[in-house]
Amino acid sequence: MDQTLSAAANAVRDAETVAALTGAGVSTASGIPDFRSEDGLWNEYDPNDFHMSRFRADPAGFWRDRVELIADLFGDGVEPNAAHEALADLEAAGHLNTLITQNVDGLHQAAGSDDPIEIHGNGRRAACTGCNRRIDIDEAVQRVTAGEAPPTCERCGDVLKPDVVLFGEQLPKHDLMRAQSAAREADVFLAVGSSLTVEPAASLPRHTVDNGGQLVVVNLDRTEQSKRADFDLRADVTEALPRLTETVLEE
Ligand SMILES: [Zn+2]
């Protein structure tokens, strides 16, 4: 791995533009349960309960179920890990231009990353379905727990929704376009802790590769895009990312 890691670090250092994508593997290292693995949250909860059509038909029931899921998702003491910090350091040093994440936990911002593109939204917030006013998810949870289900907007009175992309809901177009154009422009695309199976994340690295850029994959297991990768690092993201950043910043 050492050689691949050094070579990947050289590519990142020499690149003019670098984009990174993070997936569930970066969150699970902070103790956040994932959704899709064998003992992921979708084994405990029924995904249909969190579908957009359920939210529309029964927002009160949706919110009561959601409060339980939020408690499991963002338990106490969840903090950024070494991979989040390594990406924030890379960005601060000017070696990471765009950070895209599939994760909804807000841990990149907590680590100091500036304005990551959250293609699946941010579960730490609720947003008004009418005027898009956002509030902290804790406030929404408190109101639901106190009997206000569904919670409504204090400005316009419309129903609040967790500020994440639900099943059956379109990804935010603007964010998706920003992510795609960042991938197209990147000399190096760094895919971290994502199995690269779920669209649109799966096709983002392809934009870079199709445009002649290089792909670095850091993931414990082989990914769907590993065959395209110029540098395929099968490693723990909390070990490999800090080493990668350290090596990039060495010279
Ligand atoms: Zn509103």
Automatic annotation (TrEMBL):
Domain Deacetylase sirtuin-type, chain residue ranges per copy: 1-251
Active site per the UniProt annotation: H120
Pfam family, one: SIR2
Domain of life assignment: Archaea
Binding site for Zn(2+): C128, C131, C153, C156
EC top class named in words: hydrolase
InterPro entries for this protein: DHS-like_NAD/FAD-binding_dom (IPR029035), NAD-dep_sirtuin_deacylases (IPR050134), Sirtuin (IPR003000), Sirtuin_cat_small_dom_sf (IPR026591), Ssirtuin_cat_dom (IPR026590)
Keyword RNA-binding: no
Keywords: Hydrolase, Metal-binding, NAD, Transferase, Zinc
GO molecular function, one term: metal ion binding
EC identifiers of the protein: 3.5.1.-
PROSITE patterns according to UniProt: SIRTUIN (PS50305)
PANTHER family for this protein: NAD-DEPENDENT PROTEIN DEACYLASE SIRTUIN-5, MITOCHONDRIAL-RELATED
Protein name as annotated: Sir2-type NAD-dependent protein deacetylase
Organism (species): Natronomonas pharaonis (strain ATCC 35678 / DSM 2160 / CIP 103997 / JCM 8858 / NBRC 14720 / NCIMB 2260 / Gabara)
Gene: sir2
